[in-house]
């Protein structure tokens, strides 16, 4: 004899199943609803049995769809699958994935159909959020101003956005599956890039590099790269994502700025120790501003070179534009005077005003050299002496 406990066990299992279970008769009335579905909707069994299922639990906008599904169940005698919304007591809508089939009596007369459902509301939200995220990522990927490239672990292109097409000249279809070395790396740079590639695969964070690349049409460009390894759940590297920016124009501008700076520095240095050829055999060096040890050395070298080149008999140090006079400056000027004398030229000093002269006296600086109040007076003396 069958065990009387079996129906009770089966009913208990059905009632506590983690899925929704509902039975609906031919008139659309609820004839059964398990405990799981009752709990989710917020009703008791007495409140739902005998009630119009669609009117009580289905949004009006879904009634026509539900009638069509019921019709298909009755006529097909098969199983249907669909998703539709179910309303809870509080008015919240749940999205339920249903699997339904009709039940017939021994004479083949339709009795009711039942559905087994899974609440996929949370899953739906997750899928929609994931879809939106994917859409945003796709939009970012395709509209980003930086080149975005995905590589497999063998350094073959797995994805290639429009900015990368613009930078390197290869269309996505041309680049897919090809090795990065042959797509964009000049032969002489390949050993360096190979080392960087190994660093990327072993690094836990981004690896940045700047190197020369080559475009499809053979142009040499300079690119800045930010590369990050892609790791699966087990910690295995499955690919590399790269952001690339063509900085060729910026590098050129930086080099031009450095070249201008070097040229300006050379001009400033030249102007800080100018030597003027005033007359045959007569040179002059205007001293403007202050003099430190570095400038004094540069002035001395410049003056001595000019004297040797021109075989000048006289070299005039014009102090008209000098800002101050102290022991240090006087010592530097004394060194210049002695140096010019050693190579056979006489040094004259012009523009030595009363203040500077008084300072020299107060400091007790020996300054045995012919001095003149102005450059014109010193030049006149030098020209007359040169004619003798």
UniProtKB/TrEMBL annotation:
Domain PAS per the UniProt entry, residue ranges: 12-77, 133-204
TM segment ranges: none
Keyword field: Coiled coil, Phosphoprotein
Domain (STAS): residue spans on this chain: 272-382
One biological process term in Gene Ontology: regulation of DNA-templated transcription
This protein's record includes keyword rRNA-binding: no
A Pfam family assignment: PAS
PAC domain segment(s): 80-132, 203-259
NCBIfam families cross-referenced by the UniProt entry: sensory_box
Organism of derivation: Polyangium fumosum
Protein name: PAS domain S-box protein
């Amino acid at each position: 004899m069958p065990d009387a406990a079996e129906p009770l066990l089966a009913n208990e299992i059905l009632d506590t199943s983690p899925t929704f279970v509902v039975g609906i008769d031919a008139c659309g009335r609820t004839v059964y609803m398990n405990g799981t579905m009752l709990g989710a909707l917020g009703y008791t069994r007495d409140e739902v049995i005998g009630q119009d299922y669609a009117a009580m639990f289905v949004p009006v906008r879904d009634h026509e769809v539900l009638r069509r599904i019921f019709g298909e169940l009755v006529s097909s005698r098969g199983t249907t699958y669909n998703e539709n919304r179910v309303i809870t007591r509080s008015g919240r809508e749940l999205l339920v994935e249903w699997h339904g089939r009709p039940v017939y009596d021994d004479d083949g007369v339709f009795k009711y159909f039942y559905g087994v459902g899974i609440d996929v509301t949370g899953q739906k939200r997750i899928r929609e959020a994931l879809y939106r995220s994917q859409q945003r990522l796709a939009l970012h990927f395709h509209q980003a101003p930086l080149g975005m490239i995905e590589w497999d672990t063998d350094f073959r292109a797995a994805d290639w956005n429009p900015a990368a097409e613009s930078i390197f000249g290869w269309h996505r279809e041309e680049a897919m599956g090809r090795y990065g070395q042959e797509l964009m790396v000049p032969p002489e740079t390949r050993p360096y890039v190979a080392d960087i590639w190994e660093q990327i695969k072993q690094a836990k964070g981004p690896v940045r590099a700047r190197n020369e690349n080559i475009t499809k049409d053979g142009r040499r460009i300079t690119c800045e790269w930010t590369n990050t390894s892609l790791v699966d759940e087990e910690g295995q590297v499955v690919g590399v994502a790269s952001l690339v920016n063509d900085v060729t124009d910026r590098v050129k501008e930086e080099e031009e700025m450095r070249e201008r700076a070097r040229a300006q520095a050379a001009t400033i240095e030249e102007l800080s120790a100018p030597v003027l050829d005033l007359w045959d055999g007569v040179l002059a060096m205007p001293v403007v501003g202050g003099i430190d040890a570095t400038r004094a050395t540069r002035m001395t070298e410049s003056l001595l070179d000019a004297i040797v080149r021109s075989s000048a008999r006289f070299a005039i140090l014009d102090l008209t534009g000098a800002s101050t006079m102290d022991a240090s400056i006087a010592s530097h000027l004394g060194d210049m005077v002695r140096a010019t004398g050693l190579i056979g030229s006489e040094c004259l000093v012009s523009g030595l005003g009363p203040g500077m002269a008084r300072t020299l006296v107060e400091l007790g600086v020996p300054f045995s050299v012919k001095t003149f109040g102005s450059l014109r007076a010193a030049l006149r003396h030098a020209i007359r002496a040169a004619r003798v």
